[in-house]
Design a protein that fits this description.
Layout lengths: L1 E4 L6 H14 L4 E4 L10 H9 L4 E3 L3 H11 L12 H8 L4 H7 L4 H9 L3 H7 L5 H8 L4 E3 L3 E4 L14 H5 L3 H9 L15 E4 L9 H4 L6 E2 L3 E3 L12 E4 L6 E4 L4 E4 L2 E6 L2
Helix pairs in contact: 3-4
């Protein structure tokens, strides 16, 4: 079966927990990830190391990953006004957990602070030289969307009034800069509850479910599941109450773990830790 996994943000322990529980329930699982593997949490390096070893897994690009690529290489999939070059990208996202990402690669916080106050292209380049080639290749290879006959997986949003087929999302993205930006940076608002013109169900991360009305997520930090839209960012790296979530499109089942990697059932943690 397929399992779509929400935003990880450097949270290695919950990632291990949810992968262990998925494997326990479904040894032949296919894993689809909605992006944002780095920043905020303490171990982005460990997260990417683990992901690189997975089989039967496909990875969507998140906006944090896109900014990370800009800092690493000077290129990104959907350039942002505030992150149009490595220096500006670093100065913006060092406020959103990028310093923790660097620390996971054994970069000293004093060096990070020095570059923050003396930013030059060469200084930023040297700071990020600690990121190994395999991790750079992983970030560069991330796709903007996964499309299957009955579902699609993207990081941020797809317009409720934009077709998902004929042309496909991938085809539309080729020459549509607005769509590229929206799929990585857009946010659903009240229109999330509207009926979409999509034929398939869209699975997204990016915007934490707690930003929406409790009537949509039950006030329990659960994924929001609507007939045509599923939102999976349950804030694993945002607060002690954060969770990492996975939804199975084939059965509708939800798996959640807390920040300690323990499986959450009906708002309560199992006593055993998922392996």
């Amino acid at each position: 079966m397929r399992w779509v996994i929400g935003d990880i943000h450097g949270m290695l322990t919950p990632l291990r927990g949810i992968l262990g529980e998925i494997a326990r329930q479904d040894p032949a699982a296919r894993l689809l990830f909605v992006g944002d593997y780095v920043n905020r949490g303490p171990d982005s390096r460990g997260v990417i190391d683990l992901l690189l070893g997975l089989k039967n897994a496909t990875f969507v690009r998140g906006n944090h990953d896109d900014v990370f690529q800009m800092v690493l290489s000077g290129q990104s999939y959907a350039p942002h006004l505030h992150a149009g070059d490595p220096v500006s990208a670093f100065l913006w996202f060092v406020n959103y957990g990028m310093e923790k990402t660097l620390a996971s690669y054994d970069v000293d916080y004093l060096d990070i602070e020095w570059v923050r106050h003396h930013p030059t292209p060469n200084a930023v380049f040297k700071l990020f030289s600690a990121v190994p080639a395999a991790h750079r290749q992983f970030i560069e290879s991330l796709v903007p969307v996964i499309e299957e006959p009955d579902i699609f997986v993207a990081h941020a949003m797809w317009g409720p009034d934009v077709l998902d087929e004929s042309p496909s999302i991938s085809q539309r993205l080729v020459n549509d800069g607005i769509a590229k930006h929206q799929i990585l940076w857009g946010r659903f608002g009240v229109e999330v509850s509207r009926k979409k013109i999509w034929r398939r169900t869209g699975y997204f991360g990016h915007t934490p479910v707690e930003f929406f009305s409790p009537s949509l997520h039950g006030g329990r930090n659960q994924p929001i599941r609507l007939p045509d839209t599923v939102l999976l960012d349950t804030g694993a790296a945002l607060s002690p109450a954060g969770r990492l979530s996975a939804v199975c499109p084939d059965t509708g089942e939800v798996i959640q773990v807390d920040r300690a990697g323990k499986v959450v059932v009906d708002g309560h943690c199992r006593q055993r830790e998922a392996k």
